[in-house]
User: What shape does this take?
Amino acid sequence: AEYADPSRLPSGTKAWISRFDVKNVQPAEDGDLSTVKVKAHLDLNSVLSITSAYTVVQTEVEEPVPQPEPKEGEEPKTPEMRKVKKLVKKDVLPVLQASQSLAPAAVAALTKKERDMHAADELVGATEVAKNSLEEYIYDVRGKVEGEYKSFVEPAAQAEFLAALNTAEDWLYEDGEDAARDAYVEKLAELKATGEPIAERHREDVARPKAVRELRDAIAHWADRATSQEERYAHITPEERQKILDRIEKVQEWLDDKTEKQSQKSKWDAPTVFASEIKKQREDLVYFASPVMSRPKPEPKPEESKPAEPVPAEAQPEAAQPAEPPMDMDID
Assistant: This one.
């Protein structure tokens, strides 16, 4: 295989592409030349290869002669046979290939170089992402600490944290302009060690009242069901109702204790109870009470037929007396 126009090739490039040697070709049985089928393939990268090579022999086979479709009501005719010559695959042949490809060691070296370049590109991208994350965190948290987070951080700690944010910003635009990725990640982790607890206290202060309200609603709901005298709950046993009321009492005591302790804390103190804990108490209460109070009322059992009781003799009706026969009468 050769290039059609060698003059268009880069200087020093040979005109031939590859050489393919098909092995083990034998003369035909009748001494004539063998027929060899060779399949070539050009992939998306324009790499030429021989995918297969095999010998074929011509042989006669019988096959039915095509017949027209029988008309309606006609019986199909017996098919006529004819002999035709066909090429049949016989022997698969091995193919050897020689090309201008590089030596395996050179290919391995170039592959490693490509991987190193790809890793370097990824590191550049990751470094840029880390740098942007640090910059965004500084701007975002600094504004919140001076605003909505202000009451959730002690005044002395607030001044200290704002100073740390400003120092990190100065470093980012001076010595840290071309820093390594790990340096940005480390700076961000240092700031988050102080900033994340502040943000958490703010989130809890917003979420906790809603969670408390939902738990109190659940307590009232299931207490009302457990003490209800409605007909639809008549099949729930007193023991089952009492278990639900005992569970409600424990949950109520836990909630009152936690909310009381939380009310004694300032907003910049660590929370005594988290909204997620309150939600978990509500879910556990629902899972405990719902299967009991939602159990359907059992179907009534069918009444068994009883044998008829004997009727006392004095209660039985008197038997009808036969009518007296009519008296004979003479008619004048």
